[in-house]
């Protein structure tokens, strides 16, 4: 042992007793007899010797770790034996127990000499510090094994002591008989006293009296040498087992770490780099508890409290706070799995398993104080998510997703901050829109393909846009209940618009013109080849476009087109709201399958699971209802119009559709030409107006006029007209002296045809959108 090669003895704390220094300090005459250079040389040599052999002593302590682990394995194996132990087995267990105490004592002595041999501040490498941590953990592992196996050890120690007492009594009784035969009464009496002391239960007092009696009897002279040596060994073992608790406490005490607090801080600062086992952390906290108990002996008030608070702060700063950051980083990586994440940003699987183990066994005990790692991480993540969400409300969904992942991965129950949700491009709020939905459908254009609304005019250089995502964000803020409110508001708006629509078609001039066009088409059906003539639609549009009250105001046909557009915009609003509600409900899809897994028997009675299952079922029904609002709006007006004879004039509307489409195409061409020019403030900037097409398809569906409109073959007629116009332009170009005029006509005709094709495609899409089972041909 290096402790024998280096003459130094650990007394307490960080104090080493070195005989050479003691003699030089207490006997100055020795120092005076030797010159000062020699004394200084010896001191320097001793210090150099300590430094050179510290690593060797630490390596020797490390070499005992395998023996300590083997000893722990054997002790646990003995614990699992349920058979009754005989005397021989008990002796083996007792010897094994003493062996464990010796291993812990050697490791502790070596570690104390390594830490206390430094003259100045303790300096060591990270690898050396890790070895010291490993030695400390194994010392406390031995202490923990003693505590776990205490009941078995006491039984075996009792039987071993009984065996050793029998052997000792046999040897002493043989010496007593020999003294009686030689008529040495005093020696025989002393041996008798020793026998009486060993007949009772062993204690330090009885063994002390027994030893005095044997010395009085001069047992080494009265007994054979081999017998006296054997008796000494037996009595020594008995004395050892009498104070075995004190010995185990002494050899496994790690309170000397109190004087090397930097090591304690380094342990927590490097724990996420080392990734120790969960049990190793418990062993090291037991060593810190030894230090806390040691501070109880201090005469300074509140010394133990201050040191424990220092250790708690070290655990939080060095271990728990970085653990929170690591878990938060892992949650962020999980929530962005749909993106390409750099491998360097991902935590290794070993680290993730360590985090889960800490969360499953979160308690860290420090002598009467329990730190819960799970509660600390939960509070930290809740605060972090709340603060970040408060700064950027559009990220609330991301942090809600991370909270759900924390529950699934680490069993962390995070409390929702109950902050409102919004989008990074937060547009109009749906509640504000519903308060003035009539103004909204008048000032915004609808795009059927993208499901978005674009402002027509704006006093500044930007236009507001409202998408289904914005509506979903509003519903996350206000709840899914606003969807039903939006449908009710839209119904009231459509009801008022249908009243205006009814008045328009009831007008005598309009009704007469519609009847005239219907009669003409039916009478000349074969001559027209079942194609409604575009000239009649153009004539209808021009005739009623001339009707206006003042200059600069929309014409009669423009107002009719705008009425249909507003109705279509209202329906597009309901459609976008339904899409947003579906997006919100899809986030709750994880809870949808839970309802099928809840099984309630009749014997359960009033169980809280029943309301939970009903709530989840209502949630599923709500998600399914989101797709039926359009059909509801169709059926509610269909039943009102078709069941009353006073609305029979509405059935002539299908003949007005061609004229409306012509007016719509001319309007879109004007708007597109305006976009090509320099932008003007407070001017309409329309490039899409699918609300008109939605309105047409909706009205035809409500009035069941699709078969009548289809019989007009309107879009085929427009195609035929464009083909004929192209042929006429070709002939005109051959004979024309001004080709530029012809090119302008050709460009306008091409734009007219392209706009009608776009109208046709969108019209068919809107028809599919409003298709009901009895309308499908």
Automatic annotation (TrEMBL):
Signal peptide from the UniProt entry: 1-17
Any Pfam family matching the protein: WASH-4_N
Domain WASH complex subunit 7 central per the UniProt entry, residue ranges: 256-591
Span of domain WASH complex subunit 4 N-terminal: 7-255
The UniProt record lists the keyword Signal: yes
Signal recorded as keyword: yes
Domain of life according to the entry: Eukaryota
Keyword annotations from UniProtKB, A to Z: Signal
Entry's Gene Ontology BP terms: endosomal transport; endosome organization
Cellular-component GO terms for this entry: endosome; WASH complex
Record PANTHER family: WASH COMPLEX SUBUNIT 4
Name of the molecule in the record: WASH complex subunit 7 central domain-containing protein
Lineage, opening ranks: Eukaryota, Metazoa, Ecdysozoa, Nematoda, Chromadorea
């Amino acid at each position: 042992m290096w402790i024998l090669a280096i003459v130094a003895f650990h007394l307490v704390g960080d104090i080493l007793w070195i005989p050479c220094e003691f003699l030089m300090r207490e006997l100055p005459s020795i120092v005076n007899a030797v010159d000062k250079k020699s004394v200084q040389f010896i001191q320097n040599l001793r210090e150099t010797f300590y430094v050179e052999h510290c690593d060797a002593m630490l390596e020797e302590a490390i070499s005992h770790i395998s023996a300590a682990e083997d000893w722990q394995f054997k002790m646990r194996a003995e614990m699992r034996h349920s058979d009754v132990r005989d005397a021989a087995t008990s002796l083996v267990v007792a010897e094994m127990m003493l062996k464990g105490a010796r291993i812990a004592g050697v490791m502790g002595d070596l570690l104390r000499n390594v830490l206390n041999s430094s003259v100045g501040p303790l300096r060591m490498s990270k690898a050396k510090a890790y070895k010291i941590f490993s030695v400390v953990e194994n010392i406390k592992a031995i202490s923990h094994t003693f505590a776990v196996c205490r009941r078995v050890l006491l039984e075996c120690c009792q039987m071993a002591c009984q065996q050793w007492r029998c052997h000792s009594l046999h040897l002493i009784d043989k010496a007593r008989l020999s003294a009686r035969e030689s008529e040495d009464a005093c020696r025989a009496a002393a041996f008798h006293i020793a026998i009486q002391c060993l007949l009772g239960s062993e204690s330090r007092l009885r063994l002390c009296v027994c030893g005095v009696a044997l010395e009085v009897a001069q047992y080494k002279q009265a007994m054979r040498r081999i017998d006296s040596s054997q008796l000494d060994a037996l009595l020594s073992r008995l004395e050892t087992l009498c104070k075995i608790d004190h010995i185990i406490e002494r050899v496994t005490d790690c309170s000397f770490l109190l004087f090397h607090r930097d090591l304690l801080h380094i342990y927590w600062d490097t724990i996420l780099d080392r990734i120790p086992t969960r049990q190793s952390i418990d062993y090291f906290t037991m060593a810190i508890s030894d230090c806390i108990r040691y501070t109880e002996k201090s005469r300074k008030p509140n010394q133990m409290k201050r040191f424990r608070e220092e250790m708690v702060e070290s655990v939080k700063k060095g271990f728990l706070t970085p653990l929170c950051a690591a878990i938060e980083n892992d949650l962020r990586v999980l929530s962005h799995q749909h993106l390409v994440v750099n491998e360097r940003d991902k935590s290794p699987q070993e680290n993730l398993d360590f985090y889960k183990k800490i969360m499953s066994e979160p308690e860290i005990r420090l002598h009467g104080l329990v730190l819960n790692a799970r509660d600390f991480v939960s509070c930290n993540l809740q605060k972090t998510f709340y603060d970040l969400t408060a700064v950027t409300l559009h990220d609330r969904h991301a942090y809600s997703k991370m909270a759900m992942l924390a529950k699934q991965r680490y069993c962390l129950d995070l409390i929702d901050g109950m902050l409102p949700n919004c989008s990074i491009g937060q547009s109009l709020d749906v509640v504000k829109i519903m308060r003035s939905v009539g103004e909204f459908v008048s000032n915004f254009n609808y795009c059927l393909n993208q499901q978005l609304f674009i402002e027509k005019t704006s006093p500044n250089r930007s236009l507001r846009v409202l998408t289904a995502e914005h509506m979903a964000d509003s519903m996350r803020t206000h709840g899914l209940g606003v969807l039903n409110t939006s449908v009710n508001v839209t119904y009231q708006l459509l009801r008022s618009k249908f009243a205006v629509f009814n008045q328009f078609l009831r007008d005598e001039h309009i009704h007469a013109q519609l009847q005239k066009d219907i009669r003409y088409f039916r009478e000349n059906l074969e001559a027209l080849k079942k194609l409604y003539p575009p000239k009649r639609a153009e004539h209808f549009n021009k005739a009623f476009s001339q009707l206006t009250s003042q200059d600069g105001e929309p014409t009669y046909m423009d107002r009719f087109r705008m009425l249909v557009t507003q109705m279509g915009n209202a329906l597009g609003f309901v459609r976008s709201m339904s899409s947003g509600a579906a997006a919100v409900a899809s986030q709750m899809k994880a809870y949808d399958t839970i309802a099928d897994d809840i099984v309630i028997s009749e014997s359960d009675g009033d169980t809280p699971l029943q309301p939970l299952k009903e709530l989840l079922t209502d949630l599923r029904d709500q998600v399914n209802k989101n797709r039926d609002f359009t059909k509801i709006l169709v059926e509610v007006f269909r039943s009102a119009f078709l069941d009353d004879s006073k609305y029979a004039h509405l059935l002539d509307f299908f003949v007005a559709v061609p004229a409306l489409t012509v007016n719509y195409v001319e309007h879109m061409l004007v708007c597109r030409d305006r976009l090509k020019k320099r932008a003007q403030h407070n001017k309409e900037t329309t490039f899409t107006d699918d609300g008109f097409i939605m309105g047409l398809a909706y009205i035809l569906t409500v009035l069941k006029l699709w078969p009548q409109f289809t019989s007009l073959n309107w879009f085929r007629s427009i195609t035929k007209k464009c083909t004929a116009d192209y042929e006429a332009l070709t002939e005109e170009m051959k004979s024309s002296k001004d080709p530029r005029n012809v090119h302008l006509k050709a460009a306008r005709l091409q734009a007219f045809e392209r706009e009608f094709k776009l109208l046709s495609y969108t019209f068919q899409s809107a028809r599919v959108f409003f298709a009901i089972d009895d309308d499908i041909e």
